[in-house]
């Protein structure tokens, strides 16, 4: 993803490059977060709860209520964002000399994190973009038996999802390895979580989530994992001590307490996505189906040139390393209006060439 640069003219800096919930926290929730953090300041000379007991309990209650699957604090682990969770998983279950496997296109930091802990990364390329090649992946899993298989669901950057049956097929082919399902965007989609699988396959599956996207808490950097206690305990043995600050734990607990109110904005965001997609398809763009609040904009003759044209107009999209597509994340309604207006202007000016 390219860093947004200030634009002197145009729309003044509209960021549709990060797939987060654009609606700010309501003032009373902001105040509750402030008070919770303030309450930790008096004890800031002490270390945080290394087991994040209160936060894990609240997360277990949230997941149990929303997924209608019983989850206990012993099924939950927390860290500073999903990336730290992934790092812990790759280190504990693959590590130097181990193998991790993923499908393309997907989250660009999967291989970066795996290789950073010494694991060998194996990638299964797509044969029919933007769909990930699950048939080739199943063959590769059966052949090389990786220590970790990681799949984003919904996927980033394409927004497509796999079914529960597909994950069970992966688990059937996977011997002693572990399947990691990255559900960073599950609350921003209409698809069901795979959380029920942690009880049916207690030795073989972990599910990662974050408060960064739907929960409007990206700056708080709180990720969590759901798995059977034996997998959680393996990570506990490899964690850094006191790794999640007391202030992060307190702020995240407030966010989870108010989950229903915060997530109530997600349907509005998905309607905005639909409105944008309809207008762009009418303009001739290829927009692959997405189950979440972002989508791919294509098929562009030169994605980088189009990214620069939007940036020069003060609108920043996600350049996610795809030759003919950019990622667009639905923003606030007025931001989306300005994006669509800019798109029309850039088409009229010949700044966007659609293949």
TrEMBL record:
Cofactor(s) needed for function: pyridoxal 5'-phosphate
GO molecular function terms attached to this record: pyridoxal phosphate binding; transaminase activity
Domain of life: Bacteria
GO biological process terms on file: amino acid biosynthetic process
Domain Aminotransferase class I/classII large: from-to ranges: 27-338
Swiss-Prot/TrEMBL keywords: Amino-acid biosynthesis, Aminotransferase, Pyridoxal phosphate, Transferase
Transmembrane regions: none
PANTHER family: HISTIDINOL-PHOSPHATE AMINOTRANSFERASE, HISTIDINOL-PHOSPHATE AMINOTRANSFERASE-RELATED
Annotated protein name in UniProt: Aminotransferase class I/classII large domain-containing protein
Organism: Mycobacterium ostraviense
């Amino acid at each position: 993803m390219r860093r947004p640069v200030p634009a002197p003219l145009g729309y003044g800096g509209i960021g549709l490059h990060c797939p987060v919930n654009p609606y700010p926290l309501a003032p009373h929730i902001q105040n509750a977060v402030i008070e919770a953090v303030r309450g930790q300041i008096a004890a800031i000379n002490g270390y945080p709860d290394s087991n994040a007991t209160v936060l894990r309990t609240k997360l277990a209650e949230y997941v149990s209520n929303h997924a209608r699957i019983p989850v206990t604090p012993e099924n939950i682990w927390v860290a500073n964002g999903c990336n730290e969770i992934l790092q812990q998983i790759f280190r504990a279950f693959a590590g130097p000399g181990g193998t991790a496997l993923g499908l393309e296109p997907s989250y660009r930091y999967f291989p970066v994190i795996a290789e950073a802990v010494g694991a060998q990364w194996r990638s299964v390329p797509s044969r029919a973009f933007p769909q990930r090649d699950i048939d080739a992946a199943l063959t590769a899993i059966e052949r090389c038996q990786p220590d970790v298989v990681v799949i984003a669901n919904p996927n980033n950057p394409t927004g497509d999802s796999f079914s529960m049956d597909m994950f069970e097929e992966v688990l059937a082919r996977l011997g002693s390895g572990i399947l990691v399902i990255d559900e960073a965007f599950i609350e921003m989609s209409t698809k069901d979580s795979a959380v029920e699988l942690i009880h049916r396959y207690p030795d073989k599956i972990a599910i990662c989530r974050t408060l960064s996207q739907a929960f409007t808490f990206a700056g708080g950097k709180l990720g969590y994992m759901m798995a059977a206690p034996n997998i959680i305990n393996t990570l506990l043995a490899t964690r850094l001590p006191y790794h999640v600050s007391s202030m992060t734990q307190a702020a995240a607990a407030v966010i989870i307490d108010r989950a229903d109110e915060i997530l109530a904005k997600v349907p509005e965001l998905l309607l905005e996505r639909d409105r944008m997609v309809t207008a762009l398809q009418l303009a001739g763009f290829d927009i692959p189906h997405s189950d979440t609040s972002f989508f791919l904009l294509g098929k562009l003759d030169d994605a980088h040139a189009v990214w620069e044209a939007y940036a020069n107009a003060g609108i920043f999209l996600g350049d996610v390393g795809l030759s003919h597509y950019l990622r667009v994340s639905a923003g606030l309604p007025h931001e989306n209006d300005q994006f669509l207006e800019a798109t029309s202007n850039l088409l009229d000016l010949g700044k966007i060439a659609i293949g």
